[in-house]
Design goal:
Blueprint: E1 3-7, H1 14-22, E2 26-30, E3 44-46, H2 53-63, E4 70-73, H3 79-90, H4 97-104, H5 106-115, E5 123-126, E6 140-144, E7 153-156, E8 175-179, E9 184-191, E10 194-200, E11 206-209, H6 216-230, E12 237-244, E13 247-254, H7 259-268, H8 272-282, H9 291-294, E14 298-303, E15 307-312
Helix pairs in contact: 1-8, 2-3, 3-4, 4-5
Length: about 325
């Protein structure tokens, strides 16, 4: 029986854990919380956090993980970091540490996007003690190099940088300062040959869209080209973009399960955790229904704290 080192066993990850077991995997669960809900549902469990490389390395060695086994996480974006290191050491199929670092570190991500022809907002890297001259007539966004939380993302409107947060867990080496791009916000999910598109409406909700119109072929090819160039093809990725008068700007790439697509699948009666797990453990790009079946005129509203809702809208 193939084994899977499973990072993160809280309540949100339990459906993915159960899906892995249903596929026949022997699940080695890990979570820093010894009382995590998935602890008793895994075949083996150790109280080790997803960022504890030494602890995960010890577990992988103890169970003899190798090329026939897998490493999986449906936890936070940053869980991929330690997973990639342990996978590389044990020969387990998984994106390389270099690929994961490019996705996580914005000081590497934006230049790599530009190198393959993707447009990004004007961006500069700031070291902690930097005091750049800012145009008070322009609007900027300041965020940490590994930033994923809006708590540590600051909108600068007066030409003066805020005091850098001393306890930002997403800060490693530098900050990123970007010009604000005004336009329509999009969230795209890519897997296999599919592209799921959500566009933000004036009320702050997200509409499931048929596609990107005339720009779809070029945008999709650019994003997939990045994934192939970096070595992240094969899974499900989520992208943040802004469209301004026909120009598409890449803001971010996420590796954790996408909330909007998951919410839409639940509304359609599709078992997203089972499909996502099958996609990532078995490489089955047909595990999820095609976007043409999932998508109808719908609005996804809410956030991670308040929860998500789905409602029909009159137009796509």
């Amino acid at each position: 029986m193939a084994r899977v080192l499973f990072l993160g066993c809280n309540a949100n990850q339990v459906p993915y854990l159960e899906a892995a077991r249903a596929l026949g995997f022997e699940v080695i669960g890990t979570d820093r919380n010894a009382a995590a809900p998935g602890a008793t549902r895994a075949d083996h469990f150790e109280a080790v956090g997803y960022d504890d490389v030494a602890g995960l390395r010890r577990i992988a060695e103890h169970h003899g993980l190798g090329p026939d086994d897998r490493i999986f996480t449906a936890s936070a974006h940053l869980a991929y970091e330690a997973a990639s290191v342990v996978a590389a050491e044990r020969g387990v199929p998984f994106p390389s540490p270099e690929a994961i670092a490019t996705a996580l570190d914005k000081t590497r991500f934006y230049p790599r996007c530009a190198a393959v022809g993707l447009r990004v907002p004007p961006t500069r890297e700031l070291l902690p003690d930097a005091t750049p001259h800012l145009d008070p007539e322009r609007v900027y966004w300041l965020k940490s190099d590994y930033g994923k939380s809006p708590r540590w993302c600051f909108r600068v409107t007066d030409g003066r940088l805020p005091e850098r947060p001393p306890h930002d867990a997403f800060y490693r080496r530098a900050f990123v300062l970007q010009d604000e791009i005004e336009g329509r916000h999009w969230r795209l999910n890519l897997w296999g040959d599919e592209l799921a598109a959500f566009a933000r409406n004036d009320q702050g909700g997200w509409c499931a869209m048929a596609g990107l119109g005339a720009a779809q072929e070029a945008v999709a090819a650019g994003l997939r080209g990045f994934l192939t160039d970096v070595g992240l093809e094969g899974g499900l990725t989520k992208w943040d973009l802004i469209e301004r008068e026909g120009e598409w700007f890449v803001l971010d790439l996420g590796l954790d399960p996408p909330a909007r697509l998951r919410t839409l699948c639940a509304h359609r009666g599709v078992d997203f955790p089972a499909a996502y797990t099958r996609l990532h453990l078995l490489g089955d790009t047909m595990a999820l229904p095609p976007w043409s079946e999932l998508r109808r005129p719908l609005e996804i509203a809410g956030d991670g704290e308040r929860g998500w809702t789905v409602a029909p809208v009159a137009t796509p």
